[in-house]
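Possible regression after last week's pipeline update?

I re-ran a chain I had predicted before the update to compare outputs. Posting the input and the new output here so someone can diff against the archived version. Not blocking, just want to make sure nothing changed silently.
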Amino acid sequence: MHGDRDEPVKWRKSSYTEGESCVEVATFDDRAMGVRDSKLAASPVIPLRARAWAALVAELRE
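New output (post-update):
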C-alpha cells in the first residue's frame, strides 16, 4: 500500500502492544488509515477513513 505520493507506507506498532498480540497502523493520507496484524506483514489491511479511525480509537479508550 502506498500513500498519496506513491511512497511506501510506514507502519508503526500500537503503543498498547502486549506480547505477541499487536497491531500496526499506518497513515495513507489525511483521510485514511490502515490496520494490520503485526505478526503477518503480508496480512490483509483494514482500511479506515479518518472519521471511522477516530471512532475506533475513542471506543477503545473507554
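Follow-up from reviewer: compared with the archived run. The CA atoms of residues 11 and 26 lie 5 Å apart. Marking as no regression found.
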